[in-house]
Batch of 3 targets.
Target 1
Amino acid sequence: MTNHGEASSGCIPLDARFWGKGRELPHPYPVVCHLLDTAAAFGVLWDVLLGTEVRERVSEALGLRVEQARAVLSFWAGLHDLGKITPPFQAQVPESFAVLRADAAYRFAPGAEKERAFRHEMATHWALTELLGEAGYPAGGRLMRRAVSHQVAQLLGGHHGSFGAVLKPKELSRASEYRPCLGEEGWTAQRRAHFAELRRITGAGAVPVQGLPAELGVIVTGLVVVADWLASQRGAIVPLMPPVGWQGRPEELDAHWSRTRAAAVGLVTKARLGRARFDAERFEEMFPFPPNDLQGDLADHLPQLVGERGPGLLLVTAPTGDGKTEAALYAASVLGRAAHARGLYFALPTMATADAMFPRVRDFAASALAGERALTLLHSMAWLSPAYAQDEQAPEAPDGAVSADPATATEAGTWLRGSKRGLLAPLGVGTIDQTLAAILPLRYNALRLFGLSDKVFVVDEAHAYGPWMHQLLSRLLEWLGAFRAPVVLLSATLTGRSAASLVDAYRRGAGFLESSAVEPAYPGWLFTDSRAGEVSTPRAVASQRARTLDIDLWPVTWDALDGPAVAPRARGRRAVLREVLRPVAEEGGTALVCCTTVAEAQQTFRDLCTAFPELALQKGGLRLLHSRYPAFVRQRITADCEEAYGKPRNLDAAQPRPASILVATQVVEQSLDFDFDVVVSDLAPVAQLLQRAGRGRRHARGKNGRPPWTRAEDRPLLVVLEPVDGDGKTAVPRSWGAVYDAGLLRRTALLLAERTRTGIAIPAGVQGLVDEVYAEHFVDGLDTATQRELRRMDAERAAGEMAEEHLADMVGICAPADVAGDLHKLSRQEAGVTEELLTTRLGADSGRVLCLYEQQGGALTLDDAGTLPLPQGGKRGPARQELVQIMAHVAPVPGSWLRGAEGHPAPRGWDEQAPLRDLVLLKMRPDDAEGTAWTGRHGNRSIRISDIGLEDESHASSA
């Protein structure tokens, strides 16, 4: 460590006329005050938000003592807006700029003040590289990226979410020529004066010996961003406004520093940016029931293992319904306590599963955690979730408005539950894409990484992601390994190869490059620590729900999209489905019918209404659940299904349920706690079929709780409808498109045919079956023609998977070890790769529509009854309650439906609201006098909405 003492007394006096904040304020706020405010907020965040171990790691990396590191990093945080002392920024307030322009000390090249593309954060990067070098920060020789002065400047230049490229020494040495927007010597001198005073006041005389590794650099970046946002709130600035005539003399700056340090504590507290504590230690303290075999084995062995080896990654593999959620939350408590983590994030594959998990995590937090327990729900429609809307967190106070330039205002104005801020809360539940965005070169990806850096990260349904998302998850685990953040992975059907790749990614991030031999026990768990990278011997556990899954495989000709007016074909899907479901309709009980596409689910529902008209007339007799409903309709249907098919409240009084059939798509595969007497599914890969089968006999219903037509309780039935051609071979319907790989479907059908006599042992036979369907030797023993066809399909699948993995590698950010002093690698995008492309790819090809119902007289309403007029909003768009109402009526559709045409024009101001910007408005007219169905045109498509959701009538066979 080098100490250069206080700032040189040779600096010219600081000029307090340079403004830093102006919007929504009585008069411009001096930039030096904002620098001090941010430094003060950073210091409190350092104390409150970071754990002891992280503070020590950062200090050690810099070669400083902890108290020195706090002062130096607070100083850095204050420097983030030094680039505002430039002509283009100051010119944004003409009255203030006129005074500076008239001062001969502040010369600049003609037109420099108009160069708005040279943003103030870019100026910070340029200016600080020189100033930190002058302050004695180590240089990097001929490589600028190795210079600590440049690393810090680049880090602070990234406070608006994107890191600039490494500067060139030649250009930096003649900065005013290459970047005339920096201004001439007078501007440089004032940046130097502000730098010196900020350093003096914060006591940051110590100089770091070296820079920060990437994983610690993003933590510091995250703290700087949050400190800036807190200090930018109007309610934070107004009480600190200096009086008229304030000149920024040293004694005045010292007085402001005292006031802002005192205020910063309240800012952090009010924002609920604290740390949760994992206080409960025993399973029984966390949950109102004793542990099952899996949970009990973890309770017996995991605490000692973690106590000896420290925190790390836990992989739990068990069938659906075996209590993995409670096992994960218990394990998160053990790991979080050992790591002194500040909270947890529970990641799930879909919005519906995240909504269902939110109250469970909330209840767990209430019973098992202490400290700050602010909990956020994170997905694109979270603010419409009833559970989240009713949560106890208070709305933002009026003085939380932000005074900032537009980039800051966009992010910090959404402070409480904004999409980028939600991960900062101690506790979170949300979709996996919210976290995978952290390792794509998107703005504020470093903030997302920071939000995960000191939490237990729980991933449910780790098997549910294709090659693209699996590769991104692997890269995220590398970063979490580098953070030494605890991780819990849950899976019902994860292949051994996939399990090994995820475990090794975490170990690689922690610094252990050799591969491990991971062979998961099923059901069971294994653990690897982040200190030594050692993988424990997998622990197999018994299951209290051991049973045999009976398989009925029905080869059928595919007529799923034939209308009810067309007679069912002999041995066709419609006829077989009616035959299978007849006992349900006539004798009672419940059945799940899982379809491959939304269009086929809708047509299946219509067909069953025709086949069983009396059942269709009964309340809840026939239900339909898929993704293509307006949000409020899907929420209502899901709630009805939870009531009808959920866990019985009184086991002793359970009776066979009235006849009820749910037709659904893959939305029922994951994390929804439904229980059916029989499950029927179209052919799907074996892992998905096992997930769906887990909804059969999921809960004990007592000796009288099942209808008489069902088999023994420990012999649940899965009926699989296999589409075949005229020769009886598996034939993927054209309507399925590329939903599933054809080779996997063929392999699955062959495996199931062998299991129709013996059934599948659950859980003992699951892992072997999941691994077998991918095995290279699978084709051995098949006839020559089948071998040739499967090998061709396998090669196509391998090529497709390799292409997706390559795409993920190409567009994702690099591993932390590869950053090598250049944070721009976290922001750099390949040519042709845009944020829109990345976010679209992460969320698949989807669009969002809002149906507008044209009433008599031409008025447009949000509902078919005409009771909800279309909100017009004002200059800034709809008010919050109007926005909630609008978004409740939004429905997702395939992106292909919306390309090539423009929707109905949006009302004025709607483009000011981020959730409304990519919304397509469809003007709908009634199909009939009753108004039960409405149709609208979009380009050459005719889109229809009715009680079965949205349909593309012009392409009726589309998925």
Target 2
Amino acid sequence: MVRARRIWVTAAALCVVAGASPGVAAAQGRPPSAAGASADGAAVLPPGWRLTGGGSTPRLEWRSDRPVPMGDARVEFRAGGRLLGVPRPEGDGRTFGLPLDTTRRNGLDRPQVWSGGRRLDGPTTGPAPASPGSPLKPTPLSPPPANGVDPGEPGAYRTKTGEYTLKSVRLPGFAAPVEMRAVVVAPVGAPGERPLALFLHGRHYTCYRGDDITADWPCKTGYRQVPSYRGYLRDQRLLASQGYMTVSVSADGINGQDDESAEDGGAQARSSLIRLHLARWADWARHPATAPAIVRDAPRADLSRVLLVGHSRGGEGVNRAALDSLYPPAADQDGYHGAVRWTVRGMVLIGPTVFGQNPVPDVPSMTILPGCDGDVSDLEGELYVDGTRAVSTGTALHSAVYVVGADHNFFNSEWTPGRSAAPSEDDFYDDPDHPDPVCGKRAATRLTADQQHRAGSVYVAAAARLFVAGDDRVRPLLDGSGKRAPSADPARVLSHAVGARRGGGFLPDGGVSVAGGRLCAAVDPSPAKTCLGGDAHGYSPHFAQWETDRESGRHAIALHWTRTGARTRVTARRPVSLSGAQDLALRLFVPPNSRGTQLDVTLTDTTGHRATLGRIHADGLPGSERTASYWGREFRVPLTAATRTGLDLLSVKSLELAARSSSGRAWLVDAWGWRPGTPEVRAAALPRVDLGRLTVAEGDSGTRTYHLPVRVSGHGSGQVRVHVLDPDTGHGTERLVTVHPGGHDIDVPVEVEGNTRYGPDRSYDVLVKAVHGAVVGSYRGGVTVHDDDPAPTMKVTPLAGRVAEGQSLTWRVSLSEPVDMDMGAVFGVTPPATGPELSTKDVPASWLRDISGRSPDPERPLSKVTGLYLWIDIPPGHTGTDVTLPIVKDRVAEPEESVRFRQLDDMTGKPLPDGLELAGSVMNVP
């Protein structure tokens, strides 16, 4: 028995179970779609699913009917609303497998495959439409007014391009070295030191040869590295023409290893790589003669003005690099150990992942959300905006720009068909028979690859101009002011933001009461509590799920009315000050494709004075059941009416929304006092929390208590929310904890009881998220208990090894001792050593179909039947099971015939040289 994967089983397997003492269990099969169904009461698995690996190494496996492209969002197995785990992909691009312990195996309940908020194993459609019949037809958005300054216009400088390759580096937890390679685009003739923009691509294939692409690292002989780092040359040239030094770094060495080596999806490794490059640029700025030619011949970089641009997992890596530059990580988790000789002024995150959901609060950011993202399709990057609220001072602007009709890949030309060196594709899969009305290739709202990349370049330049150059004239493109950059046409780009000069405000998470509406939960298994129920027609980026099935501290306000004049009142726990604000800015959304929602906005102060500020007109984004189009647009109403009527803006008690349409739905994300401007940002001195993982041996006796490794560094105190996941159910319990540097405020004890019985490893997992006055680096940790007992021996004893026709061959498979997990083996039929072989007509036709999915016709030896395997399973606490092979009485005169099933190798599926056998013979009955 070995702990290994079985990836080769292609048909139904036999699963039999013993009683308290060995009994007889007929070898009854199941249809192929239920291949993995266990005999201990677990639910029958749906088509495409199976349990493989036998009892000793149980593995839940799903195989797609089409290739699943390598992407940035993690593929996840879920069941019963909880996360089962993150499976590993196999080399065929279709198969994913997750090792299971006994508790997770028994808890399977209609398993599902999800990636980036999108289900992969079910229908491509999402939840049912919000109303009966066909959903409303998407219509393109009208263009907003042009901004006074267009950052997409090329600058005055010519550009020069070159590359550098340095010695590869070792990163913690990664077996193979990671490359230090980059492409530089520099301005020619720009005076003085120039700001630096560093780009990092996301997770993609690493190697290719012709049309063959792999995720290997290093690349095999004859394969070339996929040049993902060259995919942003268009963006780099625009910035370089405007006077920026630009560098795009390669991270294929991380992409090829992060699924196996990084619990955080590779965020810390990518941060280390970024900072290793920045350290070299700092060296070259001081000693230009040591720089590569392209850097040596270019203007010197100003490391006090750095913009980080990350795509997909590169976006999460950029966020971590900015965090690590302000609040140093633990040395044993980090690949960079030098001084921080740079200042990150801002970040651009393009379709980013956010596995940790812990954005750095005091570095300004702009997150690009592609409306047709087929990879990170839940647009979870919205959490880089929403997740910063109330965490720190709130002076950093955090913007989200929603690009209608953009997919995930086409922001990188090396991921774009017709432009890439390696094979590439449109990540939004479109069924040609049922094209998506928003994101289908011929949809009016879908952008071409060129249109999309051009828009991306423009908004990267806008972020650089605002965050690095400090040009406030481009802010209206990013902060919800409703302006557009004409150079990005025909793309329709919408924006909203938090931070900067916003103040006061009504936050659903800040303690409010609601009348005439519902304070709803972003993530909750209860349909009565969740914000988007089963009648939603798509998804919301604001409600992207984390690793838990419910979360405190993430709410919105749901409005549903059936008459004109219906009112929803939101009352703050403490009076809100809107003093000094120019407008009230509301982030609010209505159902996709809907038109004409009108809401009057009224404020009431603590003395009862009321002022109606104005009316907002809200239309839904173009959306389908496959898009995350429930996204909050920013609406502003002037506070002049409040001032005119004498409302006390220092002490506002409530916000009221009154419907001016006969029926409708809306969701309020938050509301703030707003005034123009972009203040200078200074990072607060905050404590940083990092969780670690401790692996311990189970031991043979006694009970030992271990504690979750936690490191709290930095300054001051702050609050975090700690989620402890139950290893049996996967459900979490949470608590709010105040942390202090060097303290032991987060204490999660784990009791381990030793024994001498063989069993599975057991993982006690913990998650942490910043709430207020703290930041989080390594968000996931725990205690893994390694079972250190030897596996028992297994043997086969024939009970009826030679029988007459009409009887059954029977064998007993037994263990030398009981164990704490399922144990088993898979046997494949092979020709007998001598003599004639049993044929498909010698066993019941129903049994053969159940076991292999095959017909007995035409008659052939059993060893010629594809997919005929016997899966022997012995449950925990038992020592054996009996297996029977039914034989029919065919009334045909024939010699004695034999059958042989041989134990198969876990990895290869081939018979083990010294493996067990189930062998027997059948005598003819005259």
Target 3
Amino acid sequence: MRLPIIPLTLILTLASPSLAQAPTPTAEEHITQAVMLNSNGESLIYKDFFGVGELQAALENFQQALAIFKKYGAKAGEANSLVNIGYVYFRKGEYGKALEYFQSSLDIRRKTRDRQNEWIPLSYIGEVYVNLGQYPQALEYYQPALAIIKELKAANPKDSSYSTSQKMMLADIGAVYFRMGQYTKALDFYQQTWAMQKADDDKIGGIQTLNNIGVIYVNLGNYKQALDSYQQGLANLQECCSNYLGTKAAIINNLASTNFSLGQYKKSLELAEESANIYSRINNDAEKATKQEIKLLYDYLGQNSQALQQAASRANVGDAFGKDSFQFQGRALNMNNIGQIYLSLGKYDQALKLYQQALKIYKENSYKPGIAVTLNNIAKVQSSLGKYPQAIELNQQALAIYQEVGDRTGEGVTISNLGQIYQKQGQQEKASGLYQQALAMHRQVSDKVSEAATLKLLGDILSAQNQPQLAIAFYKQSVNLTESIRQNLRTIPADIQKSYTEAVAERYRRLADLLLKQNRPGEAQQVLDLLKIQEVNDFIGNRRSQPQTTTPVGNSGQRGVNTEPQPSQKLPLQPQEQQISQKYSAIQDQAIALGQELTNLRQTPANARTATQEKRIVELVKLEQTITAEFNKFTKTPAVVALVQQLSANSGQENLSLRQLNSLRDNLRQLNKKAVLLYPVVLDDRLELVVVTADTPPIHRPVPVKPAELNQVINEFRQAIVVPYKDSKVPANKLYNWLIKPIENDLKQANAQAIIYAPDSKLRYIPLAALYDGKNWLIERYIINNITAASLTKLNSKPQASLPTLAAAFTKGDYKVAVGERQEVFSGLQFAKVEVDNLAKTIKGTKILLDNDFSPQVTIPQMNDYKIIHLATHGMLVSGDPESSFILFGNGDRVTLKDIENWSLPNVDLVVLSACQTGLGNQLGNGQEILGLGYQIQLTGAKASIASLWAVSDGGTQALMDGFYNVLKTGNLTKSEALRTAQLALLTGNNQFNHPYYWASFILIGNGL
């Protein structure tokens, strides 16, 4: 903070009365000399960079000036010199001496009632306490300093210096609250700072505040707002102040850690490297990752992206405290960020090297929060190496620092880390107790990210202790918190949403796994529905957080939306689980209250505490331990045991609410055909088949096949079925034995005629119709209808006699289109004109659009006037890339999968894409692109869609479509039945299209029965 220079006339006025009224020339000359000495000293040290020699020279000037001011009773000058001397000692790190001089200056300002300058020593004393890590004491001085500045500003509205000082004080107080882990309060002060900076056109100050606001949002789990703040700061920096390299490096550094938290590991590494290069330029620093190391990291990231999904849930976050963030701390944080990537990849030596460099920098600067963060990171390395005693010792050191500075957030994270170490060693009771303590702290400071992670860890403990019903209750709370965090990500890029979903998906699958083991398949289906919808939203980048339930409109030009019930954004708790949660929250509330009192008492330095305070701290620590033990008692109390027994007793029945269950069963009962809903769930150690019928509770059948083996057979099946001369029966039979054989008896008892199929993961790439039982294909026994999720789909639809149809085709020409990173040439489809002409002959009144007339501008506005939309053109569904997933129109324009959300088709019964293909190269994803197509079509209001899983020959497509529409036009069969009839005609007919390559590619998604 730069001191204002006090004018000579003011110093003379505040001198002794005799001197002021009749100053002798000698006295005035000496005082003038003192003023000049002060001014010379100030010019040496009130700047960004200075040497040790300049500090010493300034100190000598200030001491000479102080002696003169004292001799002549010039109190204002004396107070000014005392502050300057205090500042020298402050910059030398001699905080005791600094406090002594600042306090002396404050005493003079108060005795002389110099309100105009009283805030200056107040603010400096606050800054000393910040550097001592005594944050409550810092606030005791910062807050009155701010009050005085506001008072002076109101009295002197034309003096802009008070506005500048107020911004500085607001930022300083915000930084203290940040360091104390009180993020909501910190955010309030930084937002006040930002508002003033915008009003004053303080560009660089505003940019630095945007960075600090971003850091706070990360700690609150509001990643979307954090990214917005960082990106706005960078954009503003580019416009006005691109030479502020330290500020740029700090923001990029924080962007790196935020991207890591969101699972964007390669992006995180790119940003960390960019930041490291800037710091290297600033500091001429050799301590950075070499280009070769960075390249190796990129290569390893590409090969081991799954490994990173198990990384720590919380990335390192930079401190928001002013200049620290943009000088030494930036370099250390950069090392922590790159070290965390090394740690997650199992490269422990490299991680440890970077962490130790960061720790050295923090220690050299006596920066306690940074020391604690880095100690925790080194502890993670030691824990990963199985060196548990060393890891525990490091965590304990970090914990002591967090307790000393009053950072409840850091304390909670560290205690949760300790719990994980004990859990790894099989000490479940010890780990459980630590998780209880951590949860109380997470809740106290609203740290949702850490709370969700620790709730999941507590669920793991309870599951390992064979308390599955309690584990489920805690897993549900973890998932619901995760959902609340994901709601804030709805408007950020789809790839970031997707990576975050992948990073936290284990919580959902772990919960679904346990629900299935407890024979609660209906609730497991709800969990998986939640994950499925999030997967497709992530893929599409859907801007609708959830479609609203409204009445569909006619062809009025209004936006059409799906009218079916949408999944809740939270998993409902069973009544017993709600009671368990309430009882547990009561224990947590006690722990939070005790923790707040303990934190406040610990803010008083040990050497300044009274005997009463020390006694109370001991009592509170014992009470905290007692409350932790209460959790273990809590799980065994008669009330909780009774609630758990009720949950267990219900496990053989249906745990969905009666309303939810009746809705699903009614959906199935209203169908023309007896149908079952099949939900395969891919888990780490097995495949689970969840089956729902109209008349019985959901059941589940475990299948002992692991994902690696399942995926291998899926790949073999795909490779065989897409080539007309290859035999796909062997892998098709294996898949049948895993997906259908275990539920054959259930299908028989239900008299099933149709299977409503909601596939999971890579199972989305295979047509269920083409599974083989050793004698017959599945399509020969059942109607197959795919859905995205049961919660989205009203299953029944009556056949319609009137089918006004719009048929469009791309028949000639060539268009070059970017697909992923390469250019593809798409040519007109030779049989497409015959296909739509035959359709027009089959369904009278069909309107045809060809080639240039088949453009988005002409086609899209009129689609809602028809019941069937048939598009005979290229469609490409690319795994992981919604922008490269598109429908090519006849004039060469393309509409991406993401664009389809703007279509309004509430009157449309069926959208047919007759020339789709999935995948890019030989690498299959998780089927999000297929799920995404069906989901997007549903959101337009259309009832169902038909698309192909691979590109089929024109002749085969034409034959299938001719058969499909000939059956559909009769009005006797549903869409799914018509498709099956057409497929059977190709399979059993005397033609060249018997191979499943021709008839199995097409699947119907949505309302088709």
